[in-house]
Amino acid sequence: MDQRAQHQHPSTASAPDKLDFILASVHDTGTEMKAKTDTLSININLLQEDYKKIKERVAGSEQALQDIRLQQADNTAKLR
């Protein structure tokens, strides 16, 4: 449960209650930001893994294309 909901609204609260409300709000915001940061870190790691796989596939495709070109050149030379 959101800790801010446990405190009365700051406009009707005493100074210590206002401070408690502010601290609870900051704590909740910090907790939310930590969770979002953790999620972003996970997503970045997944994207880096995907990028690495794509880069490897592109390199493999480029090699396969080069092999085909060499084979075509060899076949063309044999036909002459």
Summarize the structure.
Helices cover 81% and strands 0% of the residues. With 80 residues, the protein is an all-alpha fold.
Write the layout of secondary structure elements.
Blueprint: H1 15-79
Features:
80 residues; mainly alpha; 0% strand; coiled coil
Structural notes for this entry:
- 81% of the residues lie in helices and 0% in strands.
- The N and C termini lie far apart (81 Å).
- The protein has one helix and no strands.
- It is rod-shaped and about 95 Å long.
- It has one domain.
- The mean pLDDT is 88.
- Proportion of residues in helical segments: over 70%
Oligomer: single chain
What is the CA-CA span between the terminal residues? 81 Å
What is the general shape? rod-shaped
Q: Give the percentage of residues in beta strands.
A: under 5%
Q: Please count the helical segments.
A: 1
Low-confidence stretches: none
Keywords: Coiled coil
